[in-house]
Design brief:
41% of the residues lie in helices and 10% in strands. It contains seven helices and five strands, in the order ααβαβαβααβαβ. The chain has a five-stranded parallel β-sheet with strand order 4-3-2-1-5. Helix 2 crosses helix 3 (80-87). The mean pLDDT is 76.
């Protein structure tokens, strides 16, 4: 991260966040009713922590007042901190809503998480301006997440290897992508 900060040229502040949100770990050693109680408590506490982080990120976003936010998540659902940051977009308007980027194929939630995950996916679909991924296959696999798949939000594919440079001309692919996502060329982004 320090290398990125050193090499970055421009008016930008890099804000890091490293607190994780624990999720469906295996409950080894416990049996029967004790195991079920532990699993139930873990599920409930997980979603309370997620809600806490949504408000944390809403406040952080308000504190920094960025022109744009792009949330880069490895897969979907991927990191819950990224999902919480996206849900912070529920409180933003139109063009300022975050862009949700994911790189790997979205996975179906375990049956025990299906209902709350559908609800969270539905909220995320309403909190972002669009979804960006690296392949048509990943877009098709959104069917594993009906709350996102059924969203009317634009799903944009930007293949790995798209060349990005500040010297690209007006008609370049980079500027076409910025135009399509309604990001002015002079706008700086928060990448998360």
């Amino acid at each position: 991260l320090q290398e990125i900060k050193n090499r970055f040229q421009g008016d930008c502040q890099i804000v890091t966040y490293s607190k994780g949100i624990q999720r469906d770990q295996e409950d080894r050693g416990a049996r029967g009713i004790i195991k079920r109680i532990r699993i139930g408590l873990r599920i409930i506490s997980h979603y309370f922590l997620l809600a806490y982080h949504v408000f944390y990120f809403r406040n952080k976003i308000g504190q920094y007042a960025p022109e744009r936010i792009m949330i880069i998540n490895g897969g979907y659902p991927g990191g819950d901190a990224c999902r919480a940051a996206a849900l912070g977009g529920l409180f933003m308007s139109g063009a300022n809503k975050p862009i949700m980027n994911f790189h790997a194929v979205p996975v179906r939630p375990k049956w025990i998480f299906a209902i709350p995950e559908y609800f969270i996916d539905y909220l995320i679909a309403g909190s972002v301006s669009c979804f960006v991924t690296v392949s048509e296959s990943a877009v098709r696999q959104l069917a594993n997440r009906p709350g996102l798949f059924n969203s009317k939000k634009k799903k944009r594919v930007i293949y790995n290897g798209t060349e990005i440079g500040l010297d690209n001309g007006e008609g370049s692919e980079e500027n076409d992508i910025r135009r399509e996502l309604r990001i002015p060329i002079e706008t700086l982004l928060i990448l998360m």
